[in-house]
Amino acid sequence: MSWLGLIAGLGGALLFGLGAVAQAHGVRRVAERPTGLLGFVRASVRDPWTMGVVAAYLAGFVLHAVAIWLLPLYLAQAATAMSFPVTALAAALVGERLRPAAWAAVGVVTGGLVLLAIGSGEAGPVVSSAAFAPAVWLGVVALAALAVVGRHLGGGVLGTLAGLGYAGSAIAVRGTGTPVDLTVVAVALAVPAYSLVAFWLYSLGLHSDEVSAATAPMIVGQTFVPALVGVLLLGDGVRAGWGPAVTAGLLLSTAGAAWLAAPRRDLAGLRRDDAPGTASSPGRAPRPGPAPRRSP
């Protein structure tokens, strides 16, 4: 295992976790839900706050890419998924406080990700197959179609779709390397395509639901899918005898995320602080639109 790759992945996790809360504040300042991708992009490029979030995500992505190149995909994604506890802690800045039941779910997700890290083996090689580029772009088209159909659904579903987008982006990174040819360029262009659709879907989820409820399924999706693809198709290894632990880690992280994403009533795991917010104190910003669902 590469310690440089692990440190890079954890650094990216810190940026992603803080960026998620900043993104939640940004999308909730707008009363109208950004259901159109082009309109969302036009509004975002004119908004300094959203551009700041994008800058944080880009810096995190560079660190994430280093982790993907140096670690098995499931470990790189597990390290990046540690952004979830960061998001859960920082969610207090947007008036969301986790109750003990929800913290227990965070612990289950984190424990599952730790098992993934411990059971990791060696990373597979950079993918150079000519069939890889059409496969990743087919995934982009499928994700875009699912986004159009599911953009009006709840935060848990939108978070899941966003997780698939970020999973596709991570898988595509494994096909970028040297020497640079048309296949590498085509795969490289799929990375921002996946990320753009995922960013939009995640923004929709944050607009209509709690940060943790939208983030948990996204984290699991972007961890679970690359883990399976990496081991089954891209040559990523698992430590001898640790296959059951890796499987348990995937199941635990999925179960914890499902618990957090499930809709709850008023005795839910999240408390909201109702003090008014300001531009300099975004944590207390009021939330426009319909009342959100509660997570445990």
Task: Describe the largest sheet.
Answer: 2 strands, antiparallel
The stretches of 5 or more residues where confidence is low (pLDDT under 50) are 264-296
SSE ordering: HHHHHEHHHHHHE
What's the multimeric state? Answer: single chain
Radius of gyration: 18 Å
The mean pLDDT is 76
Helix share bin? 55-70%
Tell me the number of strands: 2
Distance between the termini: 36 Å
How would you sum up the global shape? globular
- How many distinct folded domains? 1
Task: Write out the strand line-up for the largest beta sheet, numbering strands in chain order.
Answer: 1-2
What fraction of residues sit in β-strands? under 5%
Structural class: mainly alpha
Individual helix count: 11
Describe the model.
It is built from eleven helices and two strands, in the order H-H-H-H-H-E-H-H-H-H-H-H-E. It has one domain (3-262). Helices cover 67% and strands 2% of the residues. Strands 1-2 form a two-stranded antiparallel ribbon. With 296 residues, the protein is mainly alpha-helical. Helix 1 crosses helix 4 (73-80) and helix 7 packs parallel to helix 9. InterPro entries: EmrE-like. This is DMT family transporter. Residues 285-296 have a biased composition (Pro residues). The chain crosses the membrane at residues 48-71, 78-95, 101-118, 130-149, 182-202, 214-235, 241-262.
